[in-house]
Design goal:
binds 2'-deoxy-thymidine-beta-L-rhamnose; Rossmann fold; globular; 14 helices; alpha/beta; 2 domains; 373 residues; 8-stranded mixed sheet; single chain
């Protein structure tokens, strides 16, 4: 795909998920598939969290094979790329749209959801005369656009698990946990179930080492350990600096269980092949509950009944729609081995449906259809 150009448009709504997905896709299209990629983003600060060398004020810069452009009110006079990716319905700038014609393929990359309606909407065209906007939905089934998965990710993960884990702990200045310690990463939003969870962990018979990347949960964590100590009973906390995006995978690989959120960390935890607990992004109309249940329904299908119900109970409790965290955690732990096995198999199954490959196939499909019109 070396001669193709691609513009990706990203509006940062909040947090790191929008830019997280766009930055990952931009790097993959540029570095794996050889497209010449411009990423238009309206918030360089958020990008610089994921890519520390990104300058937060430059209008134009090059980062890791991607041309990064600040997207502000005054849109420059540029030639649109062959492949135009609008993300999450962020609305292409008017002057840019005015330059587009039938030779440009316009795809709107949507948010991730496991709900069944996604299959019916994936690849739907939406006429915007004289243009056509095409919907592309990521997802978990073969009738969707799949998930972002870089080439060689599983090989890197497996090599890390074989040879890299000790180094990882050393690099974090943490003594390598003993075999009977449960390691957990914790990257949620604010969560009212946290205190209960910490209480159970503090009382647990196993030592629990909880790694918390700096972020929105930190004030709550600090309030729990108000004496300044980072140990209570059998629970020990280590706060970690927020790392660049490529490095975050290592944390997920190194831990036994991962608490994740939003969209991108949720997907990365699935590629890690470890048990995960998802805090879904809260939507005011409550549709996040349907999304959560839809994912659970798919994920739990091949789990033994008691493991499936443990998984559901813990996820619901963590998302404020279930019973006590105390009971849910102990059930989850009792099914840990089965959930662990399923996590690896799930990652293998999902990996067959690669978003970037599907997106590029779709791009070519649309181009070919037009050529025959
Ligand atoms: O940050 P998120 O909550 O993002 C979002 C946004 O809120 C968005 O508006 C919403 O629509 C979406 O979720 C559903 O969660 P997410 O998607 O997991 O993004 C976090 C990104 O941060 C992800 O790319 C991983 C990255 N990350 C690092 O690069 N380094 C780190 O140390 C950590 C903890 C995360």
């Amino acid at each position: 795909m070396k001669n193709y150009s691609c513009d990706i448009f990203c509006k940062v709504v909040d947090n790191y998920g929008d830019i997280g997905v766009c930055w990952r896709l931009a790097r993959q299209l540029a570095n794996e598939f050889g497209l010449s990629v411009r990423l238009w983003v309206d918030d360089l600060k958020s990008l610089s969290m994921l890519c520390p060398e990104a300058d937060t004020v430059l209008d134009i810069q090059s980062c890791r094979g991607v041309e990064v452009r600040l997207w502000n009110e005054e849109f420059p006079d540029v030639q649109p790329a062959g492949l135009v990716i609008e993300t999450f319905s962020c609305m292409l700038p008017q002057p840019y749209l005015a330059q587009m014609d039938a030779s440009h393929v316009w795809i709107n990359l949507e948010y991730l959801s496991a709900e069944s309606w996604v299959e019916g909407c994936h690849k739907l065209p939406s006429p915007r005369p004289p243009l056509i906007r095409h919907f592309f939905f990521p997802g978990f089934t073969e009738k969707t656009g799949g998930l972002i998965l870089e080439k060689g990710l599983f090989a890197r993960r497996d090599a890390f698990l074989k040879e890299g884990v000790e180094n990882f702990w050393r690099s974090k200045n943490i003594a390598a946990p003993s075999d009977d310690t449960l390691t957990v990463s914790l990257f949620p939003y604010e969560n009212s179930a946290l205190e209960d969870l910490f209480d159970v962990w503090a009382r647990s018979s196993k030592r629990i080492l909880c790694l918390v990347p700096e972020g929105r949960i930190l004030p709550q964590v600090k309030a729990y350990f108000s004496g300044g100590l980072e140990v209570r009973g059998n629970l020990e906390i280590a706060v970690l600096p927020f790392v660049e995006q490529e490095k975050y995978d290592e944390l997920l690989w190194a831990c036994d269980i991962n608490f994740v959120r939003g969209e991108d960390s949720f997907v990365r935890a699935q590629w890690a092949g470890k048990p995960l607990i998802w805090q879904i992004y809260h939507q005011h109309d409550g549709v996040h509950r349907d999304k959560l249940e839809a994912f659970l329904e798919l994920y739990c299908r091949k789990l033994p009944a008691h493991a499936a119900s443990a998984m559901r109970d813990l996820w619901r409790a963590w998302n404020g729609s279930g019973d006590s965290m105390v009971y849910a955690w102990s059930e989850f732990l009792s099914a840990h081995a089965e959930i662990d096995r399923r996590a690896m198999a799930w990652a293998e199954e999902l990996s067959k449906n690669n978003l970037a490959l599907n997106l590029l196939d779709y791009f070519q499909e649309i181009g070919t259809m037009r050529a025959f019109k």
